[in-house]
Each structure stands twice: as structure tokens, then as C-alpha cells.
Amino acid sequence: xxxxxxxxxxxxxxxxxxSGDNTQPWRFKxxxxxxxxxxxxxTREHCVFDLTGQASQIAIGGLxxxxxxxxxxxxxxxEVTRIDSPETRPTFDIWxxxxxxxxxxxxxxxxxxxxxxxxxxxxxxxxxxxxxxLEASVGLEHSIAxxxxxxxxxxxxxxxxxxxxxxxxxxxxxxxxxxxxxxNTRFSDDKIPDQAVGLDPITTRVMQWxxxxxxxxxxxxxxxxxxxxxxxxxxxxxxxxxAAHFLLVSxxxxxxxDAYIAAGAAMQRFWLTATRLRxxxxxxxxxxxxxxxxxxxxxxxxxxxxxxLAGAVRTxxxxxxxxxxxxxxxxMGRIGAGPSPLSRSMRMGLDRLILN
Length: 356
Fold this sequence. Notes:
Blueprint: H1 6-14, E1 26-32, E2 35-40, H2 54-71, E3 76-83, E4 91-98, H3 128-137, E5 142-147, H4 150-169, H5 171-180, E6 181-182, E7 187-188, E8 192-193, H6 201-210, H7 214-223, H8 228-240, E9 244-250, H9 257-276, E10 280-283, H10 286-295, H11 304-321, H12 323-326, E11 329-336, E12 344-345, H13 350-353
Parallel strand pairs: 6-8, 7-12
Antiparallel strand pairs: 1-2, 2-4, 3-4, 5-9, 9-11, 10-11
Helix pairs in contact: 1-2, 2-9, 3-9, 4-8, 4-11, 10-11
């Protein structure tokens, strides 16, 4: 077996960066031992949660930051430049420069350990040292807003419960969900394993049956209150069972791809720092996504009630975090101590990610 070159080692770590529904919206082209190109893409053509491309841009920002972190393990600095390219397929030129003053990042060991915990966490409050380290991780252009009290966690739970109704009752979201879940497994290279979703076995089996056809989903939702159990298990209970909800707030303009790439880099440093502190994280992006759709009056679904509910989600989010932060929020999630997940998404191997 041929040993990996340093540039391949770096990419072998970088591929573990998080992405929505484990889409991994990137491919790599190695030019030389110190030069590579990252070809990104977004999923706006087929994913209702990424109609602006911003969710994919945040993921790509996380990937680029992971390249930078991994490069320090070889005393290298990764210099990243965005090449002029369509926004739907952003391309980045990366040079690896050796620098003897660079020391390996303390975050490197946690790149492959970072995972999504969709199940309840412990409600122990974060201590001052933990919060200080997490806040410092996002840098000067971003800050963290915390929702920690029982009252604000309850408000967040209600918001997530409401947002989940859109997620579980629209045919556009159904088309996404039916393609991103891998059934009867603990691990998946390019999807979400059903055992990582966070449902009990009975609800999981009902969900698997329903996902075969939209008419089944619609029947459950219409006549059997089909969204109630998953919304309680996936959204309401976990929103209470955590130490806090957090929001990544940008202090710069949030217009344009570069703002979301930068937010993705900050997000990844935060998440890796949380993992180093033995804390779990789960992204909670749908309220932010639907809030943006409501602000822009985007008709993202054929269901008028879902479009109207997105407006209610935006109103609820504003009441929770304040009008001044509403459109500066780039990422949202919950955090808390507890066991690591037993099931998780893996990643495609380099053989599938490196272009010839």
C-alpha cells in the first residue's frame, strides 16, 4: 500500500468537515505536492434547504478551515484564494507553504471525532471557561449568542417544533429526506444512517415505510398526526435536553459568498473546540433557512400553509434573539455534555473525492 503524501494526508483529514445531510459538496484536484484546487458545488437545484446555496457555502468554508488546520500538522500554512467562478460552483486555489514557526493545531486530533449528536444531551450548564474558549474560537469577525435559561430553551423548543412541521409536511422536503437517509445501518459514507436520526425504533420503522411514497407521508400527516411523534423526539425534547442553544453572529456584511465561507470556517473551529472540550453539538439550521425564505418572500413550497408558517418561524426567531441579530445569524445549534453518538455519518474516501 502506497504511503500518503502530506497533501493527501491533509485532504484525508479535510474530508471529515461537516456538510448538510452529509452531501460533501466538494471535490479535490491535486496539482502538485504543494498545490491543489477545491471544486465546490451547491445543492440548490434539488434541495429545499439550500435554495440560496448558503448552506453549502458554509459547509465549504468548514472544509477550507479544516485544510488550514490539518496543514499545521506538517508545519505548513494553507493559503486559500477563491478563483473567479460561478457562485453555484465556487472554486478555490490552495498553496501549502512550509513555515518552521507553525506548530500543529490542538484541534487536529478532533477532526475525525467531531460528530452530530441528535439525541438528548445533559442539561449541565456550560462553565465560564468552556464558554470563554468557545467564544474565542470563532475569531474577531463573529460572536456567539447563548440561549441558556430554561425559559429560552423552552422558547427554542417551540420554535424548532414549529419549524419541523415545515420540514415534515412539504413534498419538497420529502424529496430530500428520501434520498439522504440510509436505512438499517449505524454508519454511512455518503448519507445519514437511520440509527443516527434520533427516533425510537418503532417511529423509525413507520418513517421508513412512509418514505417509500409521498402519498403515505401525506396520509399519516393528514389523518394520523404523523408529524407529532417525530417532532417531539427530534426537535422538542432535544431542544430542552441540552446545556444551551447557540447562534453564530457575524459582525460583517452577510451579503455574498465570502461571508458564508468565513462563517463556515468559524463554525468548524467552534465545533472542533466543543469536541475537544467533550461537548456534543447538533446544528439547528432550519429556523434560519426558513427565516431567510420568509424575509425574501421566496415561495419554496407548493404548500401555501408552509410558506405562511415560515413567516411565523421568522417572527418567533426574532422574538427569541432580537431584531438586531436576526439577519446576522449564520449558524445555529445546540450544545451539551454527554455520551458521543453511537451512530454517525462517515465520509467518502479520497478515491471518490480526488479528480483525475
